[in-house]
Amino acid sequence: MVGRSYRVGDRMVLALVAGLVLSAGVVLATEAQRGAKRERRAREFQTLLRGLGMGASVDLNGCAFAFDPRLERQCSRDLGPLPSGSAFCARHALSVFGYSPLQRRSDAHIP
Amino acid sequence: MLTFLEIGRTGVTAVRLHPLRSLVSACCLLVVLVPYLVGVALSGGVAREASASVRFGADLYVSSEALGSRAPLPLSVISEFRAVPGVTAVVPRIVGPIALGKDREPAVLVGIPAAALPAGTRCVAGRLYREGKSNELVVGTEIARRLNLRVGSRIPPFYHNNRGERLSEVVGIFRSDVSLWQSRMILTSMETAAAVFAQEGMAGEMLVYCEPGRVEAVRQAIWQRFLAAAGPVSRLRITTRADLEALLPAGLSHQSGIFQLHFLVALAATILVLAVTSGIGLPDRRREIGILKATGWQTDEILLRGTVESLLVSLSAACAALLLAFAWLKWGNGYGIASLLLPGAPWRPTFKVPYDFSALPVFLAFLLSWLVVTAGTLTASWRVATVPPREALA
After folding, report:
1. If you count Cβ atoms within 10 Å of the first and of the last residue's Cβ in chain B, which end, N or C, has fewer?
2. Residue B204 and residue B61: Cα distance in Å, rounded?
């Protein structure tokens, strides 16, 4: 009787774990299929704006580079040569999406 | 083989025998894994939108620089750019920061000629602006919420211009699910944007579209043409799509910020997991392993039992972490954490937080948690299993 109840308990634990694994698999599978809809929305917005926004910041407050490197090629508060120098900018320290400064390869002088 | 399976089954029993230990270990893992997965998913979502921003943008972004800062370009250069062989279109654009309302809400003002707007846009509730004398604006969701704006609302003059200041009218509001960057954006005509910044006849940048395969030739031609011109008053900046694509990171290499934050939390929480699996639960584990040894179990069998127990706890924790992270982002819309990880976002975002879940981070989360739990369990089990049962039971 005791052995039987142990087996039932074990099966419940295994069923719980299997349920969690299955649910996680379903989440990953359904998320992978939502790509087309997201792509259409992003395309429409970016076609309207003609390409604007790239960083994790949602405004230009303090650091335009964190919003879009097309507006500022590098962060003015980036103390790069120092270890973790970029962390001095509040817009970068906790950002989930970092990128390096734009290279200056296409500059010219105009009158 | 059957023996191994039977021993493995006792690992399942071990999870049940000490529910508090299993629960505390799983909870400690969740504390580490949920923010990690949320951060990685947010990072993936921003990366996806950034990629779209580069792909659906212009081929070249040409702006000017004076005294080391970004400076406007005269609209007269449009005809010069159009004359460059290989150029198909040139669109001027103004992008700049402004502040609105009594609380000086920061916003991003974008000016694009109405003639350059695509037809049939569905990302705006209301309509897009028209060229004309009145200032017509399309505003982002966060600006609309903070200033209590609706389609048809009028905004009193918020700028100073010698030519006069006008009322502005909200003709459209961006839909919340189109992008995170729309939330504090105000889109309007070139004339209105130039008037707001008092820069009539100027543009912040020129967006140059080129014939396929001629981008580099156009870039060189623009560069040569303006380099040859006399009098270096200001510098020209040319950013190509390739320059921007080079900034887009691949795979898991783009979470530098989240990792810096998260590893601090992970370090603190995994110490708790190790303490629970190896130290706090030790008296129970000693007694249990002592009985098993006394009934004839070998050390390797006890370690296998512990490995299965750790596997179940960490697998459950990793899967539960994914489900919680998914729920937090999908139904909770990143409540709380979005303001921490997306600079400028409010506590409760008014835009649909971008996220992307993929299998690799979940697998890494599971691997990390298994490593931590197994290290704690096996260390404690090994210490007890290698002593005589009498000592273990004492």
Report:
1. N
2. 10
Give contacts of B357 with chain A, Cβ < 8 Å.
27-28, 31
Between A79 and B318, the more confident residue is B318
- How far is residue B196's CA from residue B137's CA, in Å, rounded to a whole number? 12
Reported ipTM: 0.87
Distance from CA of B42 to the nearest CA of A (A): 7
Query: What's the half-sphere exposure (Cβ side, CA atoms, 13 Å) at A19?
Result: 6
Which residues make Cβ contacts (< 8 Å) with residue A16, sequence separation at least 6? B316
Q: Would you tell me which residues 275-304 of chain B have a C-beta closer than 8 angstroms to some C-beta of chain A?
A: none
A50 to B121: CB separation less than 8 angstroms, yes or no: no
Q: Which residue has the higher pLDDT, B268 or B376?
A: B376
Query: Does residue B113 register a pLDDT over 90?
Result: yes
Residue pair B239/B253 in contact (Cβ under 8 Å)? The answer is: no
B342 interface with A at CB cutoff 8 Å: yes
The rounded distance, in Å, linking the Cα atoms of B94 and B73 is 10
Tens of pLDDT, residue by residue over B124-171, are 999 999 987 689 999 999 999 999 999 999 999 888 877 777 889 999
Kindly report the nearest CA distance between residue A65 and chain B, in angstroms: 12
Q: Could you give the CA distance from residue B141 to residue A35 in angstroms, rounded to a whole number?
A: 23
pLDDT in tens, B354-375: 999 989 889 988 998 898 888 8
> CA quadruple B294, B299, B305, B311: dihedral positive or negative?
positive
Length in residues, chain B: 394
Residues whose CB is less than 8 angstroms from the CB of residue B212 and which lie 6 or more positions away in sequence, other chains included: none
Spans in chain A with pLDDT lower than 70: 1-6, 80, 86, 94, 103-111
- Per-residue pLDDT, B262: 67
Listed as own residue / partner, the contacts of B248-256 with beta carbons closer than 8 Å and 24 or more positions apart are: B248/A99, B248/B47, B248/B50, B248/B51, B248/B54, B249/A99, B249/B47, B251/B360, B252/B40, B252/B360, B252/B361, B252/B364, B254/A97, B254/A98, B254/A99, B254/B43, B254/B47, B255/A96, B255/B39, B255/B40, B255/B43, B256/A98
How many Å apart are CA A98 and CA A72, to the nearest integer? Answer: 14
Q: Is A75 on the interface with B (CB under 8 A)?
A: no
First CA to last CA distance, chain B: 34
The answer for residues whose C-beta is within 8 angstroms of residue B385's C-beta and 6 or more apart is B289, B293, B299, B302, B303, B392
Residue type, B323: L
Residue B109 host element (H or E): strand B105-111
Say if A49 is an interface residue toward chain B (CB within 8 Å): yes
Pairing of strands B185-188, B73-74: unpaired
